């Protein structure tokens, strides 16, 4: 009984910790300006009738729709590039390169160690040289630097967890190396690939430092760099619109990520 | 089924057949499949990394980005002597250490809960992962409004509880001004970082927690071990490799993030809540001194490298043991 109370206290605490700032955001979205900025009233209630004006403003009077579109395009391309590069690389390291491939996990992690905060200054120059500054393609080219090492590292664990007897059986049946990879191993690691796609998408969506340095044109911005610059003008904060933008992004993604939760955990089970 | 397949490796036929057989050799295929990723990483991580080192030893600015003049370590010594840099270094370390401490405790707790099944677990997972679904800059904005200097609901609740306001323990003002004061500002950054990193850290720790065989806990319970004894004698030692992985991921993402501080406190008041990546951005991009910006970003790299290699080796070793 005591265990059970402790258990639900823990669940309750973590739920509140995760959700309270966002509940406050949710209340704010539908508040009228005069209500929001009034002192002396209970801030959690609607002291004046709630309104949809801020939500409408966000979608009609700001570039938010464009930001969402840009982020989605960047995210999809980054996921595709990441998969094309890292799935074969992980297979190669797990099965084809022999003993030094076995120990490559650490080396890949060291690539991950060179963070965007270290690379953004020279990367800005490279983006200018390539002629993609101020377009979303700069992010499509550069963001896989974060996701490729990470996903290769995760997938390496997945490929390793497939028993070698499976490949050997396929080889005995006359499959070549590539056919074995394509027909036998790939279907085994689908859950891992799904987890990697989710991680890659969320990393590309979350990146701020590149998005803020490479792109200064409002219409080409992504959510992460666009929302703060568009809805914070000098000292004027469009609070309800900012909160609406946050929730519009967060809630659908949280539902999807939540459904993937067990896969994401599975993604790390084979990792080290 | 042809007889060929029974005889083992099929014989290549024609030019295309020979080509594909040649490509299918393990050594050739290994490079074909690994090559694109390696080339990409060399071009877009290795090259800019070398460029960062070259920049940090030059006098490049945004107006004149050429690397024609070599100045050795002059940028490093110039940067290190400024107060802003020293504060930024101190704060980066405080924020990272503070976040790691909070995240590890909470992630261990969360993984201990999530390893069991209970009613509404799906919903809990969705709520729990919410902070991770936000881009960092939006996380910063949510917390900015939550900790607003005038309209923070936290202040309001504290005033209602008589902990804040005239004649109360925390001073005569009705507001704490979380983001406008040095230590409260840093604490706010730590809590926000903890909030956004907890889901990822929990996923990693939970992966380790689920790999511990249940029999070991049952055996310990039969032997009469209490909750804390089980935690410190069984759970934590078995979690060690995954805790190290969680520390590495969380630590790297926290120490390299500038948007939280940029939005929450703007590094102020003064430079008292400045952190290294934001200071590098201000110096290198806004201030135009690419060389000094690069020197600031490179400063931590040797330390991170050594720490990560040691941590990873410990993780691999404790996993093999």
TrEMBL record, chain A:
Keyword Zinc-finger part of the UniProt annotation: no
Transferase listed as a keyword: no
GO CC terms, sorted: plasma membrane
Cellular compartments annotated: Cell membrane
Main subcellular localisation: membrane
Positions of the ABC transmembrane type-1 domain: 68-260
Transmembrane segments: 7-27, 72-94, 106-130, 136-156, 189-210, 242-265
PROSITE patterns: ABC_TM1
BP term (GO), one: transmembrane transport
Membrane topology according to the record: Multi-pass membrane protein
Keyword annotations from UniProtKB, A to Z: Cell membrane, Membrane, Transmembrane, Transmembrane helix, Transport
Protein's recorded name: ABC transmembrane type-1 domain-containing protein
Source species: marine sediment metagenome
From TrEMBL, chain B:
Annotated compartments: Cell membrane
GO process annotations (BP): transmembrane transport
Keyword Transmembrane tagged: yes
Limits of the ABC transmembrane type-1 domain: 89-311
Primary localization class, coarse: membrane
Transport keyword on record: yes
Parts of the chain that traverse the membrane: 28-55, 93-115, 127-146, 242-265, 285-312
GO cellular component: plasma membrane
Recorded topology in the membrane: Multi-pass membrane protein
Keyword vocabulary terms for this entry: Cell membrane, Membrane, Transmembrane, Transmembrane helix, Transport
Protein name: ABC transmembrane type-1 domain-containing protein
